[in-house]
Amino acid sequence: MKRQLQRTKSNGIMKIFVTLAMLFSAILLLGMSAKAETGLVTELKQKDATKTSVTLEWQAATGATEYEIWEYSLNGAIANLKGKTTATNTTINGLKPGEIYIFTIVPTDGSQRYPSMMATANNVKTVAEKPSDIVSVYRKKNQVQLSWDASKAYVDGYEIQLYNGKKKVGKKINITGMKNSATIKKVDARRFYRVRMRSYVNTTSGKRYSNYATHYTANHVQIVPRRADKNIRLTWTRVTGATGYTIYVRRGDKGKFQKLADVKKNTLSYTIKRIQGKKLKRGREYSIYVIARKKVKGVTYQSVGAYGLYKF
């Protein structure tokens, strides 16, 4: 819902600018001459950005001796004077991370302002905080899909890099726009990978990045269930980097999974004797999966879950 509201808000921004000059004339310039005595402000661009500031630059307007910097609310209803400058660039401070802003540059000649000669930058962004709420889900064999909360910030894109220890794995993934997921391919199910991810905004000075967010991911654990008398003997492949495993099971292909046990990293087998307090039945089907866990600095990461249906 948040992302839908943001897209609606962004689309509405484009409808504002056809009325900006009229708003200035009607609200701020009553009684002033409509005749323009300066040239147009042109080439207004975002030169730089931090988490709390943006820098704008533009080409000088002929005859202008000073410029007013105005900030508009996203609905165009409120305009605030942020400052004045005799230069053709300005840095605006005190902004919020990961936000989008509208700024207008109005030329003056020392005695009068000329809104008809103004220029508007309608997609000015600050650098966001690092990405958050990153989760891994099973895509298909040897693939993991990462998803994150893209509704918390306006950005121009994301960069994602996978690591095996300190070694980079594959090419850097570049995601443009405010998307909230990416597929990582060729993910070996036998190890945990470190994921480094950051967002960026585009400026004329280059990309300006957020801090990195770190996430750990592993593909689904490969398990082998075997009948052992009246029980199921479950074994699985070691996942490098795991600090433990968790076993889940349920009867049939529907319903809620039961957590059977947490085991340590060197335990690669488990005997299932009962499910939800009941003994196993021959000929019945059971859904089983194992999650690998990795604890880093007090945070526990998990491999993706993908269950298999097995007949006892």
Descriptive report:
The structure is a single chain. The protein is mainly beta and 312 residues long. It folds into three domains: 2-125, Immunoglobulin-like, CATH 2.60.40.10; 135-217, Immunoglobulins (Immunoglobulin-like, Sandwich); 223-311, Sandwich (Immunoglobulin-like), CATH 2.60.40.10. It is built from two helices and 25 strands. The strands form seven sheets. Strands 10, 11, 13, 14 and 15 form a five-stranded antiparallel sheet that branches. Strands 18, 19, 23, 24 and 25 form a five-stranded antiparallel sheet that branches. It has a four-stranded antiparallel sheet with strand order 4-3-6-7, with no helix packed on it. The longest helix is centred in the first third of the chain and has 12 residues, at 2-13. It is elongated, with a radius of gyration of 29 Å. The protein starts with a helix and ends with a strand. The model is unreliable at 1-11 and 13-36 (pLDDT under 50).
CATH superfamily of the largest domain: Immunoglobulins
Q: State the CATH topology of the largest domain.
A: Immunoglobulin-like
Summarize model confidence as the mean pLDDT: 87
Number of strands: 25
Query: Helical proportion?
Result: under 10%
Rough outline: elongated
Q: Roughly what fraction of the amino acids lie in strands? A: over 45%
Instruction: Kindly provide the radius of gyration, computed on alpha-carbon positions and rounded to a whole number of angstroms.
Output: 29 Å
Could you list some keywords that capture this structure?
disordered N terminus; 312 residues; single chain; 5-stranded antiparallel beta sheet; Immunoglobulin-like
